[in-house]
Every structure is written in structure tokens, then in C-alpha cells.
Write a structure and sequence with these properties.
By secondary structure, the protein is α+β, with helices and mostly antiparallel strands. It has 16 helices and eight strands. It has three domains: 137 residues, Alpha-Beta Plaits, CATH 3.30.70.370; 109 residues, no CATH class; 129 residues, no CATH class.
Length: 413
Amino acid sequence: RLLAAAESQGALVAAEIRAAGLPWDRGVHEALLAEQLGPRPAPGERPARLQALAERIADVLGSPGLSPDSQPSLLRALQTAGVAVESTRQWDLKHWIDAGGAEREARAALLAPLLEYKALARLWTANGWHWLDQWIGDDGRFHAAYLVGGVVTGRWAAHGGGAMQVPAGVRDAVRADPGWTLTVADASQVEPRILAAMAADEALARAGTTPDLYREVAEQGRAAGTALADRGRAKIALLGAMYGSTTGDSAALMPHLRRLYPRAIGLLERAASVGEGGGQVSTWLGRWSPAPGRKWQESVSDVGTQAAESAARRRRRSQGRFTRNFVVQGTAAEWALCWMGEIRRRLRSAGMRTELVFFVHDEVVLHGPATEAEAVRTVVAESASAAGRLLFGPAPVDFPLTVSSVGSYADAK
């Protein structure tokens, strides 16, 4: 019943966010585009900055007339120039640079124009002038169209417009109306806190009462004489546990994590085991993971050859990684629904004019009179705690927020 109520509340919140709209200054957005890309190009042409970079890329790779937008042509040009990559993805390019050793600086210089091109091309296609014409109305608002529960875990999706992210390059265009302010609240390290509460793991829950859970995990790790002796390792280990990483540092640190937090790691490993066996797992409020189809069942049953057996193991492990993360990510989505629902209820009960105008993963943006900002910050923080109590009762896990009231979204911390 609580899941149905939370989903219903989420649908109301999504509809109200779309109706209110995120305030957007078209003039500022156009200035940001001009600063980064150059003047608005004629239809069918690249912006001036992208065109200059395209010509430079062709020059440094020794491939006259190369279009960086043609992935096959670009890959051939890279390989001909001695860039040993199998794709043109940014991750692969950066990996090649980092593997350069003494040549790293030269490799970075060679690919710098291409990496810059990719970043600016993304801005142009995702949030350029066409996006501005299509999504920012005469009212100066971005009316985000959300699909509540659009992901199998219960996370929201969007009906176009890039509603699940406002890139840093255009955030300054999100401006509060005169006399009003934007209150931006970002929940910190939600998923490991959710895991601690779900598993009733007292040690991880103690870490979850601090603003920086990963730092406290490292403190506990040092005290116990484990390899989880610094924040970076603690973060890698916990994220690896929740997302099923089985290689590298994550795998090496898993025994230490299991020693510190047996209940939390046990919950994750049981969820993974169910998935590997073709079963279904549930979030805290009862959202079930989709069952594997007949094709999956048939593929993991085929162990007639060594190759088939290896493929079956890979498929089972992949499904186990999915169910391992499903229970935590799905419950985090339920917490977010309860958080926004409580914000909405408290704003309405207090008769405030401030409204929720944007949501992405674990961050909300509200827009309202500057005179309400202090009260709104309190509402947002108290609602996060209330959402935790609604789901988990008096479990000793906090959900700290970074909250700021600003005139521009770009100034939010």
C-alpha cells in the first residue's frame, strides 16, 4: 500500500513540476552557447568553434576532410595515426592517454582537440539552439516531462528534453525570477545509507549517521585493521559491492568489507544469488524485479560445451549483478518518492508559494519567493529525515543534504 501511495504521490509531483516549469533565461542560454560554440550556425552547418576543431582534428590525425561525426572514418583515422583504440568513445580515448607512460603528455595533446570536440558537440546536440527552440516556451520555463517509474527499479525517466540532467555548461541559464530564489537540495550517498537501513547493519548504520559515510567507513576500517584504510578505498569497495564489481580493487577489498558489515554484504550477496538462479528480488516496499525470460533460461541451461558453460556463467553473473543492485537502487527510488511527497505536503500545509520545479535522481530544485527560502531549506531537510522514518522506522541512519538557496542553478553547491 505504501508503494502505491508513494507512486501516486510521485505522479502528482511530476505533473506539478511540469505545470510549474523550471525558470529558464533564454538570453543567458544563448550567450552561453555563443561563448562556447560561436554564433548560431545556418541550418546544416556546424557552429564556428566546432568547425575549427574539426579542421584541427583532421590536421593532427593527417586525414584531410575527416568528419569527426563519422565514427567509422574517425576510428580509421585514429588507428592510422597510431592511436590504438577499438572505439571512439571518450573512455577508450582517455584510457589510451593514461596508458601512455612517458608519452602521456604527447598523447593528451594529440587527442585534446577531439575530446574538446566531443564535449562541445554534446552541448550543441543536447542543449543547443534547436533544444532551446523546442523546449523553452514563451513563458521562460522548461516544462520537464517525466515518466514516473520509467525504469524497472522505479527510478524516473523522461519524455525527451534531457530532463534527467541539466549540463554544467548551461546551468547558469536556470535563473530565479526577480524577488524569488532557487533552493537546490542534493542528497548525499543515498544508496549505501539505504543499504545500511535495509540490512539493519549496525556498524554501517553508525557510519550512516555521519555527513560523509565513506570517510567513516574508512575510520572503522582502520580501527579494525582492514585494508579499507582511506576514503577512496572505502568508496570503491562499497560501490563495487552494490554494483557487483568482481575485478580490480573492488574484488580485492570485498573480504574486508564483508568482515566489517556482514549483514549488509549478506543482503547483497543473497540478492545476487537469487538473480543468478533466475529468481526475482524485491525492494523494501515490494517492487519486484522482472523475471528473466525463456531465452535467458534456455541459454543458462546450455552447458553442453565448455564455451556454452562459460557463456551461461557470464549470463548468470550479469543477472546477479542486476538483482544485487535492484534492491538498493529501487529502495532509494522509493525514498526519493517519499522525500518529494513530504516536501509537497509540508509546502502546501504551510501555504507557501514555493514549488518543486525539477528533480533528477537524488536532487530537487524548488522555486519560490526569497522570503520563504530559509523555511524551505528547513522543510527540505526535515522531509528527508521524515522519508527515512516512514520507510525504516527509527533506524539510526541519517539522510544529510547539501542545500543552498541561489539565484542561478550554476551557483548551487
